[in-house]
Amino acid sequence: MEFRVLRYFLTVAREGSITGAANSLHLTQPTLSRQLQDLERELGQKLLIRGKYKVSLTPEGMMLRKRAQEIVEMVEKTEAEFNSIKDTVGGDIYIGCGETDSMRYIAEVMKELQSEYPDIKFHIYSGNAEDVTEKLDKGLLDFGILIQPIDLSKYDYITMPQKDVWGVIMRKDSPLSTKKFVQLQDLLGVPLLASRQMSKKYSADSGFLDWFGDEFDNLNIAATYNLVYNAAIMVEAGMGYAVTLDKLVKTTGTSDLCFRPLSPKLESGLDIVWKKYQVFSPLAKLFLEKLQQKFNTDNV
Q: Which residue, among 60, 48, 51, 59, has the nearest Cα to 11 in the 3D structure?
């Protein structure tokens, strides 16, 4: 399987047309069609459903598209790393992170490094812990910034001193907005918008299991989310109350929303993680050194 042909396949998947993809790739249509047929024969699977004017992907084609995208990203990242070896003043650093106000402290380190090396580019991927660790394990990210609790057995890490506070985002005209804090009994029976970290209930060390106790399975979870921006829109529309971290959504001034912390208080720390035995590019190593200086710690 040639890397060049995988790029061809991804272009066809993007364009939805062999003709359009051929034009984009500056190939003749027969040449591109032959390359795709050879790929299907090599894999022993039909990848494309060919219509009169458009093509679509078979289930096997969709699987290949996901894998091909990962391969292309990995090759591009590897090329960038080797280019940076030749010249450590420029290159790329890939970071995955969950939504947290503490990202501002990471941004300070990024800005400091970029001030010294203006040609450095940071590429940020936002997602929950599951999304970020998947890409981290595949080598598509240099670092992950993860909200606790998280299984750190596969990683080296720096624990940041900052903590984020959990609470509830709601409309300012909602009944719970008159309260200073939100307690467990306030959330029973009301529609909740829950993060996947909370709703998945994937491990016994989830802080939510302790906070909600025996009532966890009785919650009325009306929707789930992995990025809070869309959850805030649903709250504005009156769909319910979003359980989330503080300072991720505008809740002051003219905003229709407000934030109320949970009581008893529930906090989450933050870990900067990377794969054990990771071989860093010179730039990524510089960034790690800056992180260690910033947080006055050594990696575990």
A: 48
